[in-house]
């Protein structure tokens, strides 16, 4: 039995995410909430012929939506428009995410929380600090979903190598925006011999793939469908871990000891998922000279993003 809630189910990511979660055999019950539109999405999605029960909740029913929930996925917030950075979203999305975290702390403090709302580098620390204030923070149960970077890296590398994305899986570490995204291409058989201009272009495309979509959608939003797919993919991995399946490993942005000595206490790296959430955080392993350089550029930027999130709650 796994009850999953989607907070922001009426939005551009929330709708396709709700559909994909309805299709997940590990989800038994789906609770869809938004300030508008969630009951309609729920009615629509509930007709899909899979086993899970679906209920929609209106703006004033957040507490009911969270009752008995084991996994909460948060895609709520405003999307990026052309010319906007993920940082520009901060002011709007920070308050939305904080308020949702307050409700989760009150109603379902033991839930596993998956944060999709951008900027993830800042919104995850906001949720952590909010739960800490309420005295219910468990670092094993909070995740920033960086899976879209992993999905893009596999897809783009497969395109260059004329291979199947199933064979070109790339570990992506760091954070979830621009220069904080560090793909470890040297650690995959298909990626280790990519060099020079091809390498630079590939890394840039993995880091800024979101801009490609924002531009192509021409003011009509950002990466909603691929993000929903990535969110559902990570949720499925977590559910497998929660069910006790061994060896479920994927990158995710969590409270991490890897760079704590540099004052960076959240970081994305390979994590093994288990019955309690985070089971084990893996070190980065051997990096190429290019990756060391990318990491060097990542860390100060990431620290700034994390500190901004913490300052918002303080």
How would you characterize the overall build of this protein?
- By secondary structure, the chain is of the alpha/beta class.
- The chain folds into two domains: 3-144, 3-Layer(aba) Sandwich (Rossmann fold), CATH 3.40.50.720; 147-313, Lactate dehydrogenase/glycoside hydrolase, family 4, C-terminal (L-2-Hydroxyisocaproate Dehydrogenase, Chain A, domain 2).
- The protein has nine helices and eleven strands.
- The chain has helices spanning 14-22, 38-45, 62-66, 90-107, 120-133, 147-161, 196-217, 225-242, 289-313, and strands at residues 3-7, 29-33, 53-57, 71-74, 112-115, 142-144, 172-174, 181-183, 248-255, 266-274, 277-281.
- The strands form three sheets. The protein has a six-stranded parallel sheet, with helices on both faces.
- The chain is globular and about 55 Å long.
- The model has no long low-confidence stretch (mean pLDDT 96).
């Amino acid at each position: 039995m796994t009850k999953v809630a989607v907070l922001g189910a009426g939005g551009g990511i929330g709708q396709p995410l709700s559909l994909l979660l309805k299709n997940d055999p590990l989800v038994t019950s789906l609770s869809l909430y938004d300030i508008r539109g969630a009951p309609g999405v729920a009615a629509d999605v509930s007709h899909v012929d899979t086993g899970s029960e679906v209920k929609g909740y209106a703006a004033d029913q957040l507490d009911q939506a969270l009752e008995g929930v084991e996994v909460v996925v948060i895609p709520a917030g405003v999307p990026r428009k052309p010319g906007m950075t993920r940082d520009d979203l901060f002011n709007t999305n920070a308050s939305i995410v904080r308020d949702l975290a307050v409700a989760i702390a009150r109603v379902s403090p033991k839930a596993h929380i998956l944060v999709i709302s951008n900027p993830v580098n800042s919104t995850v620390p906001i949720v952590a600090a909010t739960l800490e204030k309420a005295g219910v923070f468990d670092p094993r149960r909070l995740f920033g979903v960086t899976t879209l970077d992993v999905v893009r890296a596999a897809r783009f590398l497969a395109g260059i190598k004329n291979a199947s994305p199933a064979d070109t899986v790339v570990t992506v570490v760091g954070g979830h925006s621009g220069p904080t995204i560090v793909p470890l291409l040297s650690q995959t058989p298909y990626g280790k011999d990519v060099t020079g201009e091809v390498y630079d272009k590939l890394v840039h495309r993995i880091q800024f793939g979101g801009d490609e979509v924002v531009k192509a959608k021409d003011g009509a939003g950002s990466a909603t469908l691929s993000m929903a797919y990535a969110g559902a993919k990570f949720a499925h991995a977590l559910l497998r871990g929660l069910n006790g399946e061994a060896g479920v490993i994927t990158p995710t942005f969590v409270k991490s000891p890897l760079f704590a000595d540099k004052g960076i206490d959240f970081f994305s790296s390979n994590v093994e998922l288990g019955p309690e959430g985070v089971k084990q955080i893996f070190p980065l392993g051997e990096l190429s000279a290019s990756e060391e350089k990318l990491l060097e550029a990542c860390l100060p930027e990431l620290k700034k993003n994390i500190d901004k999130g913490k300052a918002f709650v303080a």
